[in-house]
Amino acid sequence: DHGFLLTEQFENLYREVTEAFAASDTRPAHLAGSSYPDDPGALRTYLNGLFDGMDAPPVAPAERRPVRCLIAPHIDLDRGGAAYAHAYHRLAQGPAPRTVLIFGVAHAGPPAPFVMTRKHFATPLGVVTTNLDAVERLAAACTWDPFEDEIVHRTEHSIEFQALMLAHLFGGQTRIVPILCSGPEEPDASSPSDAVAPFLRVCRDMAAESDGALAVIAGADLAHVGLRFGDEFDIDDEVIARIRARDTEDLGHVVTPDPAAWYRSVMSDGNQRRVCGLHSIYAALESVEGLVERGDLLHYAYAADPAGGIVSFAAAALS
After folding, report:
1. Contact 190, 267 (CB under 8 A)
2. Would strands 175-181 and 114-116 be described as parallel, antiparallel, or unpaired?
3. What are the φ and ψ backbone dihedral angles of 198, each rounded to 5 degrees?
4. Quick one: pLDDT at residue 62?
5. How buried is 27 (Cβ within 10 angstroms: 0-12 exposed, 13-18 middle, 19+ buried)?
6. Alpha-carbon gap, residue 21 to 5, rounded angstroms
7. Which of 7, 21, 69, 255 could form a disulfide with 318 if both were Cys (CB 3.0 to 4.6 A apart)?
8. In this predicted model, what pLDDT tens digit does every residue of 201-223 receive, in sequence order?
9. What is the pLDDT of residues 77-132, one digit of tens each?
10. What are the residues facing 71 on neighbouring strands?
């Protein structure tokens, strides 16, 4: 009986949360006050501090090619701050994009390859508006219901951190298209499901039609290795060197850029490193294929997981 009551209470709570989320046209800033300050002044100071700590000089005016595709982390800002700074510093060197497609990672693992939302994203720095016309155009390309699992957007951080950085840099100048990418991939897969091709073709059409006013961001981390993630070994210098070598190999296909080669490279060992950004980076690269001339790896790092292990991540920009 006690177990039944707990289940019933959980179901009632889940229903209340789901109904409240569905009733609002805005997604709340889920991590404000925990992963980053919820006070606007303190948050500005915090985010400016990320950029103040950068070890790279500003890009010269002659080199300020508008960024069409940005790879940024989605690890928490405290651990990944330098990578966020390098990524968004580069984005800010050009004009503010009018629209940004953000491909995040659906850590909750819904079955749909892409999960969308029409909701705007609240931040302590103001609301980041969602481009509803773009959302509907992409939804029409889906052979599944892209809103069926919309609730996963409520607590997902991979887009929230990108929306926060865009609010800090561009305020209300930039609208977003929030897209969560899901798997899982088969261990022997060398390419993603054919179902994603029509969706990504529309993304590419939108990018081509924008004449550079649309940017694409992948909020993606790389390897997840160690006890915390199911491995039976501790992290040492040899493990770190091996992870860095494989990450470097994969990232070479990002800056080329070659989305199919990126996917094959990650999956060449069955994705043993658990690269959670596999699908979101692939989608971002496919969205700008043929539209970018070159890419630059801006930053690479890893951070320790408190429960044992490491997570690697990078910043890259394609123009």
Report:
1. yes
2. antiparallel
3. -60, -40
4. 45
5. buried
6. 24
7. 69
8. 999 999 999 998 999 999 999 99
9. 999 999 999 999 999 999 999 999 999 999 998 999 999 999 999 999 999 999 99
10. 218, 316
Query: Any idea how long the chain is?
Result: 319
Nearest to 17 by CA among 115, 174, 162, 150: 150
**What whole-number distance in Å separates Cα of residue 90 and Cα of residue 60?**
11
Confidence of residue 226 (pLDDT cuts 50, 70, 90): very high
Q: Per residue in 162-183, pLDDT tens?
A: 999 999 999 989 999 999 999 7
Strand partners, 177: 101
